[in-house]
Design brief:
phosphoric diester hydrolase activity, binds 2-acetamido-2-deoxy-beta-D-glucopyranose, globular, Altered inheritance of mitochondria protein 6, alpha/beta, signal, TIM Barrel, 380 residues, HAT_RTT109-like, PLC-like_Pdiesterase_TIM-brl
Length: 380
């Protein structure tokens, strides 16, 4: 009898978190202590991320959070995203023009804080008199872990490009950026990926040095899955992009192109390699569709598999965005499938459950089948 009641309560709690996920997430969010991540960087200990394990999630629309950047780092996300607009000689961060304010710039929200964190992670002192050849990243538990800064160009991509490049100069000088040296990619603490209206032609303009990488169209990748020549991090004799530069469309339609589907992106999938791109991404709902039957159909899974195989064969990291996120049970089901299939980055809005929950691993049946309670198993 008592066990029955306990079971009922667990089930009821599970139902609530399944169907009202955001409310529960919010309350968890607000109860998280934020003191350690005070924006006063001067008080930070150098081991500020000592207890944080990096997780391959990309914090989507990160600037909406109470503490942009820091919420994502605290959750262990190894990717953050900023939508940037060029106005009046500076880059402002926001989802739409209405949300822009003079204080919220790429520098103030992202570049300056990241630069300070890296400065303290790589401090030069009497105990450590010279800077390291390979600088440490933002995560103490894994200093070699790169943090991906995804910059979504919202208005004129050609005009935005030089501003982003200029603002990255301090990082370049400190050897903080992942770069391509003409033959190899050398990973640094920060990997800059550009998307939206970012022009592919600017990414590949210099064949000898690049530190802003493209967000390649994942939708094209399934076509190369069988035929792709594996391309590792090292690309001998330049890279395929140079040979086919002439195929890059020179005109683009106006408006936001969306991530991984920039109008400036060449449509020949064999152009993309680590020499010019980092992620390959696509809108999940547009490319794969909704799991109407409670499961992704075998055709949907096959498409995911082919896209991932094609992107990996080209040495690119797979990222899906606009993944159905509600109810929570459905979101977890899709995340489990994607991770099992080998996706590299999950675009997440809900940092807490992405990094702390166990997503119902080990559950069988469609996502709505009960019981909706967490199980300790992390297998399957
Ligand atoms: C690029 O870096 C790799 C690995 O460090 C090195 O072997 C190669 O010689 C470099 N290439 C150029 C053109 O500097």
């Amino acid at each position: 009898m008592l066990l029955g009641i306990v079971e009922f309560i667990i089930l009821a709690c599970g139902l609530i978190t399944t169907f009202f996920p955001d409310e529960v997430d919010d309350s968890l969010d607000s109860s998280t202590p934020t003191g350690r991540f005070s924006s006063d960087l001067g008080r930070w200990p150098t081991d500020f991320s000592a207890d944080i394990q990096p997780v391959a999630c990309a914090s989507h629309n990160d600037y909406w959070r109470k503490e942009p950047l820091f919420s994502a780092l605290r959750a262990g996300c190894t990717g953050v995203e900023a939508d940037v607009w060029l106005f009046d000689q500076d880059l402002f961060v926001g989802h739409s023009t209405q949300s822009l304010t003079p204080e919220r710039t790429l520098r103030s929200l992202y570049l300056d804080p990241i630069f300070k964190i890296l400065g303290s992670q790589n401090s030069i002192s009497a105990f450590h008199p010279s800077s390291d050849i390979q600088p440490s990243g933002v995560f103490d538990t894994k200093p070699s872990q790169t943090l991906v800064l995804l910059i979504d160009f919202k208005n004129d991509g050609d005009a935005i490009w030089p501003y982003v490049s200029d603002q990255l100069q301090p990082f370049r000088e400190k050897n903080y950026l992942t770069y391509f040296n003409g033959s190899s990619v050398i990973e640094g603490p920060i990997t800059v990926v550009v998307t939206g209206n970012a022009p592919f032609s600017s990414v590949v303009a210099n064949p000898h040095y690049r530190d802003m990488f493209f967000d390649a169209p994942l939708a094209l990748m399934d076509k190369v899955a069988e035929s792709a020549i594996p391309v590792g991090a090292s690309v001998p004799n330049g890279n395929p992009a140079d040979a086919v530069r002439s195929t890059i469309p020179s005109t683009r339609s106006d408006g936001d192109q969306g991530q991984g589907q920039s109008g400036s992106a060449p449509t020949n999938p064999s152009i993309y390699s680590p020499a010019n791109s980092y992620y390959a991404s696509v809108d999940f709902r547009a490319s794969i569709g909704f799991p109407w039957r409670g499961h992704l159909s075998s055709q949907q899974k096959e498409k995911i598999r082919m896209q991932i195989a094609g992107a990996h064969a080209r040495g690119l990291k797979v990222r899906y965005w606009n993944v159905p996120s509600w109810p929570k049970g459905l979101r977890f089901y899709i995340w489990r499938v994607l991770v099992r299939e080998g996706v590299d980055y999950l675009n997440v809005d809900d940092l807490h459950s992405a990094t702390k929950g166990n997503w119902g691993w080990g559950r069988k049946g469609p996502w709505w089948s009960g019981p909706w309670r967490f199980r300790p198993s992390t297998t399957s």
